[in-house]
Specification:
homodimer, 689 residues, alpha/beta, three-stranded antiparallel β-sheet, ThiC (chains A, B), lyase (chains A, B), zinc (chains A, B), phosphomethylpyrimidine synthase activity (chains A, B), 4Fe-4S (chains A, B)
Chain lengths: 689, 689
């Protein structure tokens, strides 16, 4: 990054800023962790509702904060950088120099402008202290999780140092004059590990800290973030606490930092958080937390620009994307990614083999371990939070795909299959997996073990190639855990509804409950142009069964690259799937939003209904198509029935009628008896069905 | 209809005609029933595919037949009129005169033009011979169904008369000079019943014929229609025959007319076919047939016109709507409906209480049995094929909705609740149900027993009001069956995923396996503007569990009336849900289309992929956004990976490689052994999981 290309383009990316309609950004500063500001979005309801503002999870970062100043040239504030340094065990160093091939040997004429600010990368100063690997839940050595505790978050015995608010965050980080060299301990950094006495600086990843019983700021942050301050809301509406079928998930009514730590220690959840992604607002991916969604962006050899991609990222998180994958494959890959990461408050994932392939003229046969490793280092230093690595595509499995209808559709999977066949060798990703772990652990880059053999059609779903790879991913999970790395597992793909559940069951079993991260799945192949829907069906179902993060599919899947509108459609569709899954799992707070919106609908509080929806702009626009007049926003009717008659109004009569019956009569217990009296001999107690 | 209003509008409705992209209309004339022409759509595949044209079910009627002349002024040919008359037992008579209130007392200035052609209505000349009511499957008295018979459809012993092709259909029916008066038997009509000897003309409804062991032309028609000529296709691709979890559905590999008859006799399927809907191309609704979808259209007091509604119907069936409900509530209701039915090849459903309400100034309290009955007669004579009747909304159940978040959201349900409360009387629909049956039986109008107490929010799902009503619908089903009427049951609504399955189970139990017809269900309340998706998820699932027809929900649900684009989006979304359900149920032929499209995708036959999709126009447009050049339609790459590299191409290398292994090695049985040899000790047989 020290040798910028000649700028061919002096325009800074334009991004969408400002609050979502009807909402305002708020921050909660948790007791005992005063350096943390947890972001939420509050939907302000009309006075007539008599209801407090409704708080929702907010992945959109400072872009929706009307008080924030956004300068894409500078990138977002790197508040988290302080947390990493005060924990210690890291060193700043001169990063790998950017090479022409990092950007596809783009000519100066086509080179995108380099991100102006340079940050020196951090890395671990010592190897992982962890040994032993596979930890059966409950995570060995980690204290029992007080899963049902409703106490406010409190410092864990070992983690006390984490709660000092002495170290107030410096607004911006200067890359110089601090923590030079492996031996020099960070000047003002508190070293919580001295408390623990396991040798300061030996721990680096969230998994290592969790296993050592230490609660990091990231863990505290996500605990509060997941709670949504729902304690009060649930107190107001006890009956809204979800029932549901959890299929073994155990979501506590209140998430404590200790619960987060324990889930991470067990490997059941991850916080994708590269130590070089200081701009990150930490989030957690796990079956016992809110179901998350990922949005894929990225340019290709055929289309798109840096500007578009940065805006796509900002646009995607505005509507609720929890993580973003940059799948760029064309020129300017390195530069595009730098702009994205420096401006991203959400974890960024990549598929490093894509860039590695660009570095050898798109010829998989020319791929080498050295070239791949160099690409990993490049991306580790930039701050990529998770890597998709297709180390489960092994030579012996490749022939299993020969008779498939659609062969190998995973791009990374087919690259590795090609390499294995061309050299008739086992995959270097598989054989060098230890080295990959050691490298990723130094930066706490999480694994997203890729499903390179996922089915690309209904015909190929759940075949032996797919499940053979899944077993291998389970073996690799053990190794990565032993090395101190966080892991999630990627899943299909194209799967008909009746074959979805077994995918979840096999994954939990094979991969020791590591978080599952699936692409859809698409439940039919026959609707190109609508694959956000064919896959939204499968995503909702597999999310219900236990998938922790759903990778979105846009309407352009199989047809082209998504534009800005497609990204929004994909994100909203997947927010629907994730929320439907939370409801069905019985997430204790999920139904609060459904109830709030339904109350607004029932009361004809149109504006509240729009603002409580996943997409207030579209809801408002659709309503206004038929009834544009502002008066109709408060009208007690809608275009479906018209002003003369309205079904909702009639229910008031019902309530008045019911009120005339005494409580005993209306009481559930006595209704059926009452029906018999009233000639309701047909009535049968619903509970008895 | 003899007193037309002054025409305020001389323009005939414009409708969309012409074939769907890449398809052609074909007709199959079944052996043994030469008067029948069964319509299909054939998707013509490119020569390079080496595949025959792909045949799909076609609900679009003559509008997509390039050889057909469409004249909306005349309406469609009334071929089915002959079938009804030759069966006998019917009489033509002077229909009820149209009254001003039938069109909401519209002023001449706002009156829509009356449909030009007048048809004298038909009705049964005798009461139903049926007695006894509830028939446990297998349908009493009906021969065992040869469910696995693969023999070509052959006349049933009793039904012989039905197969004569002497009566060639007259292209148009003249309403005069035929079958006057109750006693006069139809001139040239064969009387199959004389064969049966149960008293000629005593039978009228499809259920009555089915129970008498007689196979009607409608039954033969739907049998061939459901088969899609799939015998040959399945012979070509045995391995594509669906596995799947059917939850008790039993879909034979080949549908015979006798199987259709038996399913109808058991009450497990219906053919909604008013004897006055001569334009109808019969279709069947039942759990052991293809899952069907319904599209709602209709104007309201606020918006829309006759022209729009007729085009919406034509547009909806073009994209796959199997039935259409006209839910008009404003002025010109009668005239709008007449234009729709005379031009509709699919069954038309209505909610008669909507029009009845218009006839008493929108005040439910003023509703009377006489007014309602008169409305039923009006619509029976027009040819409406099924009525939604909310006879399960009983006075005793109304208080059960008092504590709901969204009370009663069914328009018909709330109308009846209001009436019951205002008069403190039991519903006249419930008390007069026998009379309603006798009336509907005369025209073979099918019941769609309405779920007036369906939940309108997640909070209200599966509550006691909903299930109390469902039990009542089960009782009413027995009565309707005893009266010779065909019945289906309406279902919710708003239901979270984990509460969907029990809805299906209770319905099957309570209603003797009568077909279930559900609205979605919506799996969350928080996405107005996207409720085609929130409900498409639930629709796919409940379709899998056994729902026979899915009522679509458009993006405008809760916000406004759907326009033409919304209708298409709703229909395509529900075609996805229905097909995903067929796949998951293991419908023997469902996967053929997925496989054909996936082969096209894998072979880069772009045009074939587009044409095989549910919406070729959109698929083509999306592809062209990124790669507009025609050259790219044959290019062996797409915009996702670009020309340099393509994952699909690599699979060819895999096949070449696999080819170098001998059959034994590649044989599934020996692969795992082979893996161990190759160091694949991690390999575990997927089947053993």
């Amino acid at each position: 990054m020290n040798k910028p290309f000649l700028p061919s383009d002096l325009v800074a990316p334009k991004v969408t800023t400002g609050p979502v309609q009807g909402s305002r950004k708020i921050y909660i500063v948790p007791e005992g962790a005063l350096v943390l500001r947890i972001p939420f979005r509050e939907i302000v309801l009309s006075e007539t509702s008599g209801e407090p503002p409704f708080r929702v999870y907010d992945s959109s970062g400072p872009y929706t904060d009307s008080a924030a100043t956004i300068d894409v040239e500078k990138g977002l504030p790197r508040l988290r950088d302080e947390w990493v340094k005060e924990r210690g065990g890291v060193e700043a160093y001169d990063g790998r120099a950017v090479k022409p091939e990092d950007n596809g040997n783009v000519s100066d004429a086509h080179a995108a402008r380099v991100f102006p600010t340079v940050h020196r990368p951090l890395r671990a100063i010592s190897p992982s202290p962890l040994r032993g690997g596979w930890r059966e839940a409950p995570g060995g050595g980690s204290p029992q999780s007080p899963e049902l505790s409703t106490a406010p978050p409190s410092p864990s015995p070992q983690g006390g140092g984490e709660f000092s608010d002495a170290a107030t965050p410096s607004p911006r980080l200067r890359g110089e004059g601090w923590g030079e060299g492996p031996q020099q301990a960070p000047a003002q950094a508190a070293d919580p590990l001295s408390v623990e006495g396991t040798g300061g600086g030996n721990l680096l990843t969230q998994l290592e800290y969790a296993r050592a019983g230490i609660i990091t700021k990231e863990m505290i942050y996500v605990a509060h973030r997941e709670n949504l301050g729902r304690a009060e809301a649930l107190a107001r509406a006890k009956d809204a606490i979800g029932d549901g079928e959890s299929f073994g998930a155990e979501i506590p009514e209140h998430i404590t930092p200790e619960f987060v730590r324990d889930e991470i220690a067990r490997g059941r959840a991850i916080i994708p958080a590269n130590i070089n992604h200081g701009e990150l607002e930490p989030m957690i991916i796990g079956r016992n937390f809110l179901v998350k969604i990922n949005a894929n962006i990225g340019n290709s050899a055929v289309t798109s620009s840096v500007e578009e991609e940065v805006e796509k990222m900002v646009w995607a998180i505005r509507w609720g994307a929890d993580t973003v994958m940059d799948l760029s494959t064309g020129r300017n890959i390195h530069t595009t990614r730098e702009w994205i990461i420096r401006n991203s408050p959400v974890p960024i994932g990549t598929v490093p083999i894509y860039q590695a392939l660009e570095k050898c003229d798109g010829d998989p046969v020319k791929l080498t371990w050295e070239l791949y490793r160099d690409t990993l280092i490049e991306q580790c230093e930039q701050g990529v939070d998770y890597f998709t690595i297709h180390a489960g595509v092994r030579l012996p499995f490749v022939p299993l795909t020969a008779n498939r209808v659609t062969g190998i559709v995973s791009r990374g999977g087919s690259i590795m299959a090609k390499w294995c066949l061309a050299h008739h060798k086992e995959s270097f990703l598989y054989e060098r997996f230890d080295e990959i772990c050691d490298l990723m652990r130094k930066y706490d880059v999480s694994f997203s073990l890729g499903d390179g053999l996922r089915p690309g059609s209904i015909a190929d779903a759940n075949d032996r190639a797919q499940f053979a790879e899944l077993e291998t991913l389970g073996e690799l999970t053990k190794i990565a855990w032993a090395k101190g790395c966080q892991v999630m597992i990627e899943g299909p793909g194209h799967v008909p509804m009746h074959k979805i559940k077994v995918n979840m069951e096999k994954q939990l079993k094979a991969c020791g409950e590591a978080p599952f991260y699936t692409l859809g799945p698409l439940t039919t192949d026959i609707a190109p142009g609508y694959d956000h829907i064919t896959s939204g069906i499968g995503a909702a179902m597999i999310g219900w069964y236990g998938t922790a993060m759903l990778c979105y599919v846009t309407p352009k899947e199989h047809l082209g690259l998504p534009n800005r509108d497609d990204v929004k459609t994909g994100v909203i569709t997947y927010k629907i799937a994730a929320h439907a899954a939370d409801l069905a799992k019985g997430h204790p707070a999920a139904q609060l939003r459904d109830d709030a919106l339904s109350r607004a609908r029932f009361d004809f509080r149109w504006q509240d209904q729009f603002n409580l929806s996943l997409d207030p702009d579209t809801a408002t626009a659709f309503h206004d198509e038929t009834l544009p007049k502002d008066a109709h926003k408060v009208a007690h009717f809608c275009s479906m029935c018209g002003p003369k008659f309205c079904s909702m109004k009639i229910t008031q009569d019902v309530r008045d009628y019911a009120a005339t019956l005494n409580d005993k009569e209306i009481g559930m217990a006595d209704m059926s008896e009452k029906f018999r009296k009233m000639g309701g001999e047909l009535y049968i107690d619903a509970e008895k069905q």
